[in-house]
Structures are given as C-alpha cells and as structure tokens.
Specification:
117 residues, alpha+beta, Ubiquitin-like (UB roll), 5-stranded mixed β-sheet, RnfH_sf, RnfH, UPF0125 protein CC99x_002725, Mopterin_synth/thiamin_S_b
C-alpha cells in the first residue's frame, strides 16, 4: 500500500483527500477511490474527465489517467481553461487600445487667453 493525496479546486472549494491505495495503482483508480468528484457538482465522472477538457497531473506536472503513482504523490485535477494565456493577453491589448482611442486630448488654456477675447 502507498499513501497519496488527491486534490481538486474551484474558486469556491478546495479539497485534498489523503488515501492509501495499492502499489502500482494509476491516477484513474486514485480518483475513483478518493471519491473527490462527489464534492464538486460541476465535475464529470472519472471516465469523462479528459473528454470534458479536464486534465490531471502529479505535483503540477501533466500526466495521463494511466500514470502509475508512487508513495507520497499528490494527484491534481485541473479545470479546463476558459481562455488560453495567449488569447487573454491579446484581449487585454485590444482593451487597452480601445481605451486609448476613447480618451480625448485635454486642451490647455493659453496663459493670455483673456487678452485675445
């Protein structure tokens, strides 16, 4: 038997469950045994995690559901990205450009404006 942790999080809830599992168990078996998905109503079943855009890893390193676990590993379930980092940056640049176009140049009154009227 080996001791591992299974972790998952959303913006509202973070959960880490410590379990003991047979040696040579894989990530899929660990997730099923931990029952962690029952805490998250928006998560699909274990068999549909990858198909729905979720990914898994061990200590922040990407892995597959068939990855064999070692004693002390922490399995992490990652939510699908809503937007890639590149697309998010492009959107921020576009927003900044749009804001700059809306700004009007301030007209400074001349020092002797009253003399010319």
């Amino acid at each position: 038997m080996i001791k591992i942790e299974v972790a998952a999080a959303t913006t509202e809830l973070q959960k880490i469950i410590a379990i003991e599992i047979e040696a040579n168990a894989n990530i899929r078996q660990a997730i099923e045994l931990s029952g962690i998905l029952s805490y998250f109503t928006d998560f699909p079943t274990v068999t549909l995690l990858e198909a729905c855009g979720f990914s898994v890893g061990v200590y922040s390193k990407a892995a597959t559901m068939d990855t064999v676990l070692q004693d002390g590993d922490r399995v992490e379930i990652y939510l699908p990205l809503k937007q890639s980092a590149i697309d998010a940056r492009k959107a921020r640049v576009q927003q900044k450009k749009a804001r700059q176009k809306v700004r009007h140049k301030k007209v400074r009154p001349t020092r002797f404006a009253s003399l010319h009227e």
